Amino acid sequence: MTIEFDDNDIILYSAVYLPKDIMSAVFDITIIAWSKVIVNREININSDEPIIAGCLGRAMTKEKNSRPKLKERIRIEEEVGTRSCTNSPKPKGRIDIKIIYSYNENEYFGMECKRVSSTNPDRDLGTKYVLEGVKRFVEGTYSLGHDYAAMLGFVIDGKVNECINLICDRLNKYKNDICLKEDWVDEQSFGTTQNIYRTRHLQNGQNIMSLLHLFLIVS
């Protein structure tokens, strides 16, 4: 199953209220692109996060461009600078993947990537996922003022459920740091895509942001 936009779809609206059909299409592209990265054996469990994210981003662009109704409607950029304040003279962070869908520079779907593992000695990756990933959205370094964004967890030990348990533990441990307002729940709004979960946070002390968490097994 592939998800594309109908001719009547309207996608040039504010990213503050990101349409779910855009996110559904992006997740669909992500899953298919990931399967091709794995089949092509471009990465392994020892690959570092920028390499994995880079291979995925490239495959996502190729998959997007294979779909006529999507090719000209969304753009995928990688390692893109983001500002935590609209008046900031320079970018504060660089997000791994940015899905741009309009002429407004602020209208995008941000995706940050992190390696995760529930197995020693890599369990500290769970803390990095929270404090160097989730927290950057909460502080507004990424996706300032947006209602949705995504974390991609690259599971390097093959144990998705155990990694989820570890991430949940770290989210609760640092709940004050990440302004956690709603605990981990299964997210059912994106068609057939599996392993998507949601947390909600108070971003920059101003608005509630939903973070979507998708886990992809590295093999």
Describe the protein:
By secondary structure, the protein is an alpha/beta fold. The chain is built from 5 helices and 7 strands; from the N terminus they run αααβββαβαβββ. Strands 1-2-3-4-7-6-5 form a 7-stranded mixed β-sheet, with helices on both faces. α1 (20-39) packs across α2.
Q: Brief overview, please?
A:
The chain is α/β, with parallel strands linked by helices. It has 5 helices and 7 strands. It has a 7-stranded mixed sheet, with helices on both faces.
Straight-line N-to-C gap: 23 Å
Main pleated sheet: 7 strands, mixed
Radius of gyration of CA atoms, rounded to a whole number: 16 Å
Poorly predicted runs: 5-15
Proportion of residues in extended strands? 25-35%
* Helical content class: 25-40%
The structure class reads alpha/beta
Number of strands: 7
If you average the pLDDT, what whole number results?
87
**Global outline:** globular
Annotation field: number of helices? 5
Spell out the blueprint of helices and strands:
Elements: H1 20-39, H2 49-65, H3 68-71, E1 75-82, E2 93-100, E3 108-116, H4 125-138, E4 148-155, H5 160-173, E5 180-186, E6 196-203, E7 207-217
Parallel strand pairs: 3-4, 4-7
Antiparallel strand pairs: 1-2, 2-3, 5-6, 6-7
Helix pairs in contact: 1-2, 4-5
